[in-house]
Amino acid sequence: MKVKFCGAARIVTGSCYHLDIKGKEYLVDCGMFQGRKETTKKNYEPFLFNPKKITAVFLTHAHIDHSGLIPKLYNQGFRGKIYATSTTVDLCKIMLEDSAHIQEMDGEHENRRRQRQGLEPRKPLYGKKDAEQCMKLFKRVKYDTLIKIADNLNIRFRDAGHILGSSIIQVFVNEDNQEKKIVFSGDLGQWDVPIVKDPTYINEADYLFIESTYGDRLHERVEKREDQLLYYINDVIKKGGKLLIPSFAIERTQEILYAFNKLIHEKRFPKIPVFLDSPLAIRATEVFKKHIEDYDQEARHKYKNIFDFPQLKYLLTAQQSMELNDFAGPCIIIAGSGMMTAGRIRHHLKHGLWDKKNTVLVVGYQAEGTLGRRILEGDKTVKMMGMEITVGADVNKINSFSAHADYEDMLEWLSGFEKKPKKVFIVHGEEKSGKSLQLKIKEKGFKNSMIPRIGDVVEL
Q1: 242-268 pLDDT per residue, tens
Q2: Model pTM greater than 0.90?
Q3: What 3 state SS string does 311-346 have?
Q4: What domains does the chain contain, in order, with CATH numbers?
């Protein structure tokens, strides 16, 4: 059996691992590259395999850096099955449709630029039809159920605790009458966070592929997050400004709404309007409401209507969003995208980033090269939407809202292995975080590890 690293190797995005098992080919994830221009250009490069030869895709979860190139895969001839949890399938439907819309809009903008330069037009990565058609290939699976893919291949999905429906994937391969157990961690979540369950411990693997997004960092503890939110809310009320929260549509937005709801039940939430200005996040929240079976015990039983409260208003239309530019008085605006690379948050930043009364509150990972990363790292001016904008607003971050495990969480998850894997492959992290995690797991007895590069092939 051979594994080729086709993405998320020494970078965070583009998760994709190509498995060649006795001549049959499979993928774990097929994600989009995000961040720097040099990175996003990889989306337009040919796949490192023939899409027509892929028998099946095993999808860990719905985030675009794990699922976003599935429509391109379909466009280039893939017609196999895509295995994913029911929640992931429903989230992918809205995520991939939204991504297709962005591809088409960005394609129009890019081709106007190319036309002015006398260059040939470029086709978008994929369109709405590709996103719609690829959904017909999805096959819903249940957690903890062994699924036979072929005579020599079985898989099992386990809860990764990252976002609703996210999975660790166990792959069982029989070659030459010998079974190999391979585990792909997917993106692991933190312990004791709202809504999602804790990551599932795995006790055995011959080979382990583990993410390392925060392999060199620790988050603030989860129990402090409501107090931190409350501090920034009260601060922006004193300043008379707006609290701008760039947020990922899936999980992060819902966790913030859950935290606000909790503060309201505790009678600690001030009377300030909250606007959810993201059609995608609103649709994702509807999916969350549908899949109560994936909630943890607290989310199931402690509160009712965990994503609704009187001060919350959902904004669907562009007109409603634009009206916030003239909104007088303090308010909270939650808008996508989480890394500030697209979506309505950019318009709010255009109108409010310069204003000292406002606060930008970062609640998620900011990949290298993104607008969010530049703002967070202290750039005094940023170029966006054709303008140079001064960063006058306060910029703060709450790390405890991350959907990713930090290195202590990862070490805790690794403690579940009763038998150490023969080899660990450290993926889905920038080089610095990967090397840091490598040192930490070595101290815990995981001595044989590798940090692969894109294009590397290993034989298991």
Answers
A1: 999 999 899 999 999 999 999 999 999
A2: yes
A3: CEEECCCHHHHHHHHHCCCCEEEEECCCCCCCCCHH
A4: 2-217+403-459 (3.60.15.10), 222-401 (3.40.50.10890)
